[in-house]
Design goal:
Layout (H helix, E strand, L loop, with lengths): L1 H22 L12 H16 L5 E5 L4 H12 L3 E6 L2 H4 L14 H6 L3 E5 L10 H5 L5 E4 L6 H17 L4 E7 L1 H7 L4 H16 L5 E6 L4 H16 L1
Parallel strand pairs: 1-2, 1-4, 2-3, 4-5, 5-6
Helix pairs in contact: 1-2, 3-10, 7-9
Amino acid sequence: MAMRGTLCQQSAKSKRKRILQLSNCNLHPHHNTMTMNSVIRITALLLASLNAANGFHIVLAGGTGKVGRELSSKLVEDGHDVTILCRNAFLAAAPSKVSSDFGWLGQSFLEKYPGIKLRDWDGVGQDWVGWQDDTLSKADCVVNLCGGFTQQREMATERIVRESLRCNPTALQITVAPKDEELRMISNVAVEAKMKRLKLCEDMVSQNCVSYETMRLQANRLEEECDNIKEVIYARLS
């Protein structure tokens, strides 16, 4: 056991040394062919391997719905910390649901899973100032579960991407949306416009973030699809 612990310490030290070497390398095009994106990608992978032993910090934006409830509980059971960005943390944590305008997890659910924390982030809740720096800055992965098909979805995606690039550009970004064929089944109004909006949000992430996944899920397979999200997170961060 002592030998194994020594080897793990040596491995961690070598990884940290490699990260420092990458952060100090010369990125001038005439002196080094490694691009900034390459450095960011490699550094993200090395940092992920260091963090895996202690669990990841995963942020779920809009995670107070059915998908957020299922996914957050699975992640916490696996030993990870989860922060849910929500419109009103006070109402989301109330003993019973008091408004259909806001998501709700409930007091008993949060007591059962103390590794789940709620954070206001859009000015509706009690304390939303500074959510970017105290939440995104330490995230290993940000999963965008913001629902709806209105312009609000675009605004939420733009906010997540912009603030992540500012304070934590290496964090894995995952967007989650229904498949096109399923969207046609659950909505019969302005379907083409909604599909374009989903694609726009995915493009916003893929064109700006160095580490990302865009996932299309089936709503009637909640547990299976949450397992798929979890597997993608672990595969990309491990």
